[in-house]
Design brief:
The chain has about 300 residues and is of the alpha/beta class. The protein contains 10 helices and 11 strands. The strands form 2 sheets. A 7-stranded mixed beta sheet has the order 5-6-7-8-9-11-10, covered by helices on one side. Helix 5 crosses helix 7. Bound molecules: S-adenosylmethionine and iron/sulfur cluster (SF4). Iron/sulfur cluster binds next to loops.
């Protein structure tokens, strides 16, 4: 039997769990066990999951992890419903090794350094990346809000030189007003500095390993066609995912904010049409429910 859509999540304290993507729920997400011995962990966890039998193909598993247990921001639409789970724990090099040791069990598929938290809050993030064996680095990726602080040139040089599979930028707005409204606690100036510096380094190195994600809210809706255009100038030919907040949105507690910010079907239809009308020469638009992916 082929097991589909399951993932392993490892947090910054190197505690792990196996879940099904379809059952991704915020409840119990942090019901994690220490990853002392990865092989035993997998055996025990698999035994607890129905439908997995000896000899099943485990490769469809996806491995996700976080190297920090916190975020500098508190976006109201964030998939994390409860920040009481946040801690100051940061993954150590030893813990990262343990996390890495899970990979071969899953067909050496993608290796994420962030999932639900903010990786650049880790003071030694770049050292962690550089410590990865090359074959792991080539599969490694992370997503960041790029607004933790103004990052130094050295950071961009090292992250581009590290040759990781991809860097995903959350780019919800290029307007200071909208950005700071959506990305609560963020300073737009840090974000702008960082993505422009990354763009310059990526162009200089002739690489194209940046991906973009924009979450659509009423605050940024009308700006998105121009945002796509400007983002493509910074990262030519990159894949840009424009998504609505994941359903069901019951993880967002603030009813008044939901009313003000979550777009309706008409607004989504307007956006799809506007993007299609742009006739972006470098991109193919694939539109699925609540998600537009533009790729070169
Ligand atoms: C949870 S964040 C963690 C990484 C980092 N803190 C960041 O925001 O880029 C991962 C990605 O999920 C997106 N995201 C956050 N809340 C979301 C939601 N409710 N629905 C869909 N995507 C969401 C973020 O914009 C980001 O691109
Ligand atoms: S920056 Fe990312 S993890 Fe932090 S609050 Fe916003 S969406 Fe959530």
């Amino acid at each position: 039997m082929r097991v589909s859509s399951r993932y392993v999540y490892v947090d910054a304290a190197c505690r792990a769990k196996i879940e099904r993507l379809s059952e991704q729920s915020n409840e119990g997400w942090f019901d994690l066990v220490p990853l002392e011995d990865p092989i035993s962990f997998i055996r025990e966890q698999l035994a607890a999951i129905e439908r997995v039998e000896p000899g099943d193909d485990l490769y469809p598993y996806i491995v996700f992890g976080d190297v920090t247990n916190n975020c500098n921001l508190r976006c109201r639409h964030c998939i994390n419903p409860d920040w009481s789970i946040a801690t100051s724990k940061r993954m150590t090099l030893r813990e990262l090794d343990k996390y890495v040791s899970l990979l071969p069990l899953f067909g050496n598929n993608s290796f994420g350094l962030s999932c639900r938290m903010e990786p650049l809050l880790h003071p030694e993030f770049i050292d962690l990346v550089e410590s990865l064996p090359e074959h792991v680095r080539r599969r490694a990726s992370f997503t960041s809000n790029f607004a933790v602080r103004k990052l130094k040139d050295e950071f961009f040089e090292r992250i581009v030189a590290a040759g990781i599979d991809h860097i995903r930028i959350s780019i919800d707005s290029l307007s200071k007003l909208h950005f700071e409204e959506i990305r609560v606690n963020a300073k737009f100036d840090f974000f702008e500095h960082n993505i422009r510096a990354l763009s310059a380094k990526i162009k200089e190195a002739g690489r194209n390993n940046v991906l973009l994600t924009t979450v659509v809210l009423r605050q940024n809706l009308r700006e998105i066609p121009a945002l796509i255009h400007d983002a493509q100038e910074m990262f030519p030919g990159t894949s840009h995912e424009v998504r609505r907040p994941y359903e069901p949105i019951n993880y967002i507690a603030d009813e008044e904010w939901k009313e003000k910010s979550i777009i309706g079907e008409d607004e989504w239809a307007w956006l799809v049409k506007s993007i299609q009308k742009m006739n972006i020469p470098y991109a193919r638009a694939s539109v699925t429910n609540g998600n537009i992916v533009l790729s070169s």
